[in-house]
């Protein structure tokens, strides 16, 4: 366990609205939520942050654990004087928010989990990726990562988006990326799921090779109050590829009484 870090955060939207905290995927920054921003800012106080080791956040030396990432979220809530918030995360961000929801339920209103899993074996593949990044930098994996983030049709149509996201991955500090790979390698949240009591929306991309719909189905089935949404024609960054489907579904979930 390491001490919480003061993660880089951007606060926008309605100061008087309910707070929503958005947690990014491995290899991205808070900018991965750009396609949700306008819709959410009209209704919520929006807090986006960069996971430790990513973007503009500090890069402590690894290894990190899922509890370290959860501690960073609680420290962020404390810093911003937020008693309770809606928690939304994608992939690594979803894993972080599951841990917070299970461990710190008093800080959580509702949860939305995108393209994530309670466990993502095999462990060795994550350790191998961590080793590659430490040796060669994140640029070595940027192309293959983005190929999992979007469907082939999307990537061939939107070349600028492909380059933008490859550059985002390549700009991630190697130690931060590798240490977060180690988080995923060691993480098993399956035992946490039954203790997540708040309403939880699990969103899968139908064509996601990294966290296929069965991973989100497992989450929705094992939390106390879960619901599954499978988004067609979407891979791992479903929020970026299909915002016209995801934004209304997310808002509806968060605004339910």
Automatic annotation (TrEMBL):
Domain AB hydrolase-1: start-end pairs: 18-239
Pfam families registered for this protein in UniProt: Abhydrolase_1
GO biological process: beta-ketoadipate pathway
Entry keywords, A to Z: Hydrolase
Hydrolase listed as a keyword: yes
Single GO molecular function: 3-oxoadipate enol-lactonase activity
Protein name (record): Putative 3-oxoadipate enol-lactone hydrolase
Organism: Gordonia namibiensis NBRC 108229
